[in-house]
Write a sequence for this structure.
């Protein structure tokens, strides 16, 4: 295939207190037209630094030491600003990791896409601008949200807007920097299918930067593995995932949890990346199980070991021939004690633009977000809240933390009813509940260094700062004392998230609200954080409301799972029971959408459009989308709550008939019962348009 872009011996350095530090060294790879190249590695390894150089971007305190970035034979590193501006967005487009900072908060999202198209004069012949914008929204599974501002969309919806903007000009190369970290599994699947279709239709090449190897397995042709600024292995996707030849690749794969078994029990990576402790030879030597004395002094370079597979390791043959990693011993926790209820959420209903003179003056009605939410957490219990983007997970968390006043219902901690908002809560109540936000860019003060950021909650709550307290909490999240003098902008996205987690742990809370806290972290750090959270649960009886779209991590961590759809709890069940017998049709959809390490595990599905029923309607919110719908009954009647062995389920179909499907249930549900959970029945186009107009007005 013809090479579209080629990176040759790329070396990049950053300026620091002690001079220039090499962060990328001798990186070489190429991407052909229509090819998807995945770039993986732990947080801080240089993935994003390399990716942004493909668009000619670089931090003010960085410089290119060596190498070239050739796009159709032209070195992008030598182009002036005007020439680069013609390429960016038109020939080479970017989907950034954080849509919150990528979208202008003062512009409607439709206007931002319009600006991209007009800048590059990329409006197809015979189409109006409005039609093209609506077409792009539909391409990424959104209704017409042109008149919405970014803050009026969920994080997943914002990310889909950035993807629509990136593909607006049909670019030759799409650079994706962790584009699906904030998306639920069904939306992830939709986006991956969208990108695959674009690649086949217009021959678009992609550089896909991510820490999610399971996601790459569904779309990548080849994968490059980076460690400490160097490529240590490049191989075809299937070859790398089944027969890794570098110890680091092997450790990454062993760290990946699965939906089927939670964590595979294999030993992953030990230690953490410490650039100040790396050897002169192989940079991975301090953490390598195959290292010998020669590795410490002998630099390693990529050498071809098989067709299209290269590795930078002198012991690659031993690694390739080694047996799979030995499962770690299972720790017996003993019989659980009867725990008291810590958090009680009773009949909670939430909405935005609530009633009042200002709302009436604007002529707007309250938009219901969640209703009739009943939730209990016991001390030392982890309850996962799962559901698609926009289902209301973060809104419920905001109400519990006091950042959104409920329309109705109550929230209690330790038997005491909490005030609706933060202003009415005592200092002790504020200390008991700590919130870890999904986006560390918005939750860390950019003007304070990490030491000041961590000291702030201790000062606020009048707690003593003991010696080594900050160093200890940083080490618990995979960082070290050297980070204390750095500022957030000097950290990668994953490192910033670890600082946010450390800050919440410092005040010893009783309840942690974890809002997608692992989405920006690579699998090796995820494992460390999961172990830390489990230790807090067992040793200090910390309860957690764990919001996540990563079902594999949920199985590994949670005691119970609450499944939320369009603001209503559809199911509450013990974790093991949910994964072995999901029962609810919507839960089945989520499980079938979760990616695996085998490409065969990925089954394309229609776009995950919301159901036709509004939240305030009478019917089941899943009506119009459910593969087992009982006709008018589901569309017109609210589903009853049915008890199960370890929780409840809200569905018209009796529990006995839900899983496995019996002949009687197939007769009862008609032809829809023969559909697989991913063959979604979409409502008529007219009802979709009516529903979307109702939601957006």
């Amino acid at each position: 295939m013809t090479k579209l872009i080629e990176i040759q011996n790329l070396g990049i350095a950053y300026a620091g207190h002690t001079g220039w530090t090499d962060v990328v060294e001798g990186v070489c790879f190429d991407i052909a037209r229509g090819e998807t190249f995945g770039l993986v590695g732990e947080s801080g390894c240089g993935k994003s630094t390399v990716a942004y150089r493909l668009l000619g971007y670089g931090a003010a305190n960085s410089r290119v030491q060596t190498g070239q970035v050739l796009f159709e034979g032209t070195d992008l590193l030598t182009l002036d600003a005007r020439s680069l501006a013609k390429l960016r967005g038109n020939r080479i487009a970017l989907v950034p990791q954080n849509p919150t900072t990528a979208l202008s908060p003062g512009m409607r999202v439709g206007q931002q896409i319009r600006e991209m198209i007009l800048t590059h004069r990329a409006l197809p012949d015979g189409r109006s601008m409005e039609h093209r914008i609506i077409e792009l929204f539909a391409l990424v599974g959104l209704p017409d949200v042109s008149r919405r501002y970014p803050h009026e969309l969920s994080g997943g919806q914002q990310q889909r807007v950035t993807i629509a903007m990136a593909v607006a000009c049909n670019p030759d190369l799409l650079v994706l920097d962790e584009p699906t970290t904030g998306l639920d599994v069904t939306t992830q699947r939709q986006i991956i299918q969208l990108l695959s279709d674009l690649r086949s239709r217009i021959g678009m090449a992609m550089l896909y930067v991510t820490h999610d190897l399971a996601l790459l397995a569904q779309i990548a042709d080849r994968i490059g593995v980076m460690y400490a600024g160097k490529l240590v292995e490049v191989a075809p996707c299937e070859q790398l995932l089944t027969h890794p030849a570098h110890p680091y690749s092997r450790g990454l794969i062993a760290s990946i949890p699965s939906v089927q078994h939670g964590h595979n029990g294999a030993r992953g990576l030990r230690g953490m990346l410490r650039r100040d402790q790396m050897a002169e030879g192989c940079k991975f030597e301090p953490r390598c199980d195959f290292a010998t004395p020669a590795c410490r002094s002998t630099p390693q370079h990529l050498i071809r070991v098989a067709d299209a597979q290269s590795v930078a390791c002198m012991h690659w043959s031993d690694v390739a021939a080694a047996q799979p990693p030995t499962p770690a011993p299972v720790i017996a926790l003993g019989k659980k004690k009867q725990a008291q209820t810590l958090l009680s959420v009773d009949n909670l209903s939430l909405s935005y633009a609530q009633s009042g003179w200002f709302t009436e003056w604007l002529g707007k009605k309250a938009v219901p977000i969640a209703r009739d939410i009943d939730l209990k957490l016991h001390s030392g219990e982890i309850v996962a809240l799962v559901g698609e983007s926009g289902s209301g997970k973060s809104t419920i968390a905001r109400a519990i933390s006091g950042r959104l006043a409920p329309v109705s219902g109550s929230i209690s901690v330790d038997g005491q009813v909490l005030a609706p908002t933060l202003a009415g809560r005592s200092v002790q109540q504020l200390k008991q509940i700590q919130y870890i936000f999904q986006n560390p860019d918005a939750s860390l003060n950019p003007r304070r260094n990490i030491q000041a950021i961590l000291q702030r909650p201790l000062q606020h709550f009048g707690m003593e700062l003991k010696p080594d307290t900050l160093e200890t909490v940083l080490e618990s999240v995979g960082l070290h004392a050297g980070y204390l003098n750095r500022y957030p902008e000097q950290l990668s996205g994953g490192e910033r998230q670890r600082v946010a987690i450390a800050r919440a742990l410092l005040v010893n809370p009783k309840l942690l609200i974890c809002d997608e806290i692992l989405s920006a972290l690579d699998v090796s750090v995820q494992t460390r954080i999961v172990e830390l959270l489990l230790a807090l649960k067992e040793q200090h009886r910390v309860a957690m409301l764990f919001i996540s779209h990563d079902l594999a991590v949920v199985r590994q961590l949670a005691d119970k799972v609450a499944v939320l759809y369009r603001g209503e709890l559809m199911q509450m069940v013990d974790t093991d029971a949910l994964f072995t017998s999901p029962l609810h049709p919507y839960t089945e959809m989520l499980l079938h959408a979760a990616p695996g390490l085998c490409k065969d595990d990925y089954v394309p599905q229609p776009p995950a459009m919301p159901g036709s029923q509004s939240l305030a309607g009478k019917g089941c919110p899943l009506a119009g989308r459910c593969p087992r719908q009982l006709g008018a009954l589901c569309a017109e009647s609210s589903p009853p709550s049915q008890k199960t062995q370890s929780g409840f389920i809200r569905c018209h179909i009796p529990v006995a008939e839900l899983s496995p499907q019996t002949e009687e249930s197939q007769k009862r549900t008609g032809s829809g019962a023969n559909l697989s959970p991913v063959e979604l029945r979409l409502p008529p186009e007219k009802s979709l348009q009516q529903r979307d107009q109702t939601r957006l007005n």
The domain at 3-220 is CATH 3.40.50.300 (Rossmann fold). Confidence is low (pLDDT under 50) at residues 326-335, 601-614, 661-697.
